[in-house]
Write a structure and sequence with these properties.
Layout: E1 13-14, H1 16-23, H2 27-36, E2 43-46, E3 49-53, H3 54-62
Antiparallel strand pairs: 1-3, 2-3
Length: 70
């Protein structure tokens, strides 16, 4: 998790479709940017599913140029 955002006990988890809709990015671009450290990392939800913390996605949307997950 990034140092940008404090996650609360009631943090909403967004799935891929919602992340794509909110950011306007394709699935490939999301994973490419995650690999480069310029997009929030996903969290595992099960064997074949993952999601993103809503607050991290909102932070990235507010200013994508300053996002650094490292």
């Amino acid at each position: 998790m990034s140092s940008h955002v404090s996650v609360t006990a009631y943090e909403r988890i967004l799935r891929m479709r919602e992340v794509q809709h909110r950011t306007g990015l394709s699935r490939t671009t999301i994973y490419r940017r995650m690999g480069a450290g310029t997009f929030p990392s996903n969290i595992p939800l099960g064997a074949n599913s993952c999601g993103w913390y809503e607050s991290e996605i909102e932070s990235w949307i507010a200013d994508p140029s300053t996002w650094n997950s490292g």
